[in-house]
């Protein structure tokens, strides 16, 4: 017969000795799902703030956060896309993601639509699509596939078959020129 562990009574000296010691270790912050597919496009970075007095970036607790980065931002950080091209790509990306959103639900309200205009969400969706078409119609046909792949679909340049392998450098040049052309048209 296996020996049973004796229970310690609360308030006794033995109970106090059996308690776990208190540690002041840093908590492990939740960085999201750890599966390989879930980690695509995630960047781990310090989650600090700028000190008002010194103007320096401060992270006294060493807190980290995970943030999803799309290919447009990656290419901009690498210097493959100019600042104005990145801004134009952001405008296209934001207009595109606006078309992908559905009607929001205010969960604090009752689930009865008592508005005087029940089809208002259709007007909102039409506005979003119109905003996207206003930007995307300015892109030349030759540039549409690479700009859409990187800015809207968040894919790499090599996603397009013609820019794989040796042609990758040609794809970088084409993407930069295409986004700069879009920036010129949006500005003027």
Structure commentary:
- By secondary structure, this protein is mainly α.
- Among the domains are: 40-69, no CATH class; 71-103 and 120-187, no CATH class.
- 43% of the residues lie in helices and 7% in strands.
- The chain contains six helices and four strands; from the N terminus they run αββββααααα.
- The strands form two sheets. It has a two-stranded antiparallel sheet.
- Helix 3 (83-100) packs antiparallel against helix 4, helix 3 (83-100) packs across helix 6 and helix 5 (141-152) crosses helix 6.
- It starts with 12 loop residues before the first helix and ends with a helix.
Overview in brief:
Helix content is 43%, strand content 7%. It contains 6 helices and 4 strands; from the N terminus they run αββββααααα.
Describe the secondary-structure layout.
Blueprint: H1 13-18, E1 42-46, E2 49-50, E3 57-58, E4 64-68, H2 71-78, H3 83-100, H4 120-136, H5 141-152, H6 168-187
Antiparallel strand pairs: 1-4, 2-3
Helix pairs in contact: 3-4, 3-5, 3-6, 5-6
